[in-house]
Amino acid sequence: MSLNSYVLLVILGTGLVTWLSRITPFVLLKRFKLSPIVVNFLGFVPISIMTALWIQSLLVQHLGQLPSLNVPNVLASVPTLISAVISKNLMVIVLVGVISLGVINLLM
Amino acid sequence: MTGELSFKAGLRDTLPTVFGYISIGLAFGITAKANGLSVLEIILMSLITYAGSAEFIIVSLLAVHAGFWAMILSVFLVNARMILMSTVVAPYTSHESLLKNIWAGTLLTDETFALTMNKLNYTDHKLNFTWLNSANLFAYLTWAAASGVGGILGNLIDDPQKYGFDFALVAMFIGLLYLQIIADRSIKFNVQLTVILFVAVLMYFGMAFITANALLLIVTLLGCGFGMVLKHVVK
User: Fold this and answer.
1) Would the CB atoms of A43 and B178 count as touching at under 8 Å?
2) What is the predicted ipTM?
3) Fewer beta carbons within 10 angstroms: which end of chain B, N or C?
4) Is A53 part of the contact surface with chain B (CB cutoff 8 Å)?
């Protein structure tokens, strides 16, 4: 098993910036309280970020022009969403999603 | 998911996400190996950098011999959304010690963040270190192990994405998004739906102009701003 010193440096450097992004709010908010305006703003982070991550997976980027659809993911999202409404159970939703995409990949 | 905040409940609540971590971790290991990284380097990257999409980007940048600072900046931008997510979670654990807060933040990811937001709907908006740590550790160790196995197996195994497992994380976001809007009564249903549509439309058109990973952060911020204004207008 080899370990290239430059690769190690990149791992440590990227690890450090990622770690600082993750922990800084935890350190600061141990001391300070957020203003109500900021709390209101942050209240929309969960749905915004989950929607953005979902939509990102449905699109294929072509910079300079509109994205095309990732058709298998779009199709698999339909039964997944239906299973969410019916079951309200995360394990069921994930299994339905995986099986749906598996079947779609098999057929396409 | 229940209101229980024990270590065991954390493992149980995180279980559905593990499929996604295994599949994408394997895919990462295979990709990294194919791009010349050793198994040790793959495992260290997953343990130290620990950032799914950013790790794929690092591997592709290493392959084209990108500069060191360019790599650091790219990873910072891709992971800048962590600042937002940590800011949302941190007030719920501020009653715990500083060390525990730092440790909880160290291992927070998109997935454990989304799980935590959902968990709050079951616990009357209470959170503790034990539950968060168990969810974080489960995700962390699964990711590192899967990427290591992917690196060892390399091209010996088929592309795991072919079997649909990589959709596990997307399915999880779909599920958690739905569970979030039906559970969170602090924001009106119509307001939530409008914000979701707003974010979706911005993502679609934004994809033409801005790299997807930077767009993710910008659109999230705009979605929050839009939601905040909308919440004031729609009383």
Assistant:
1) no
2) 0.89
3) C
4) yes
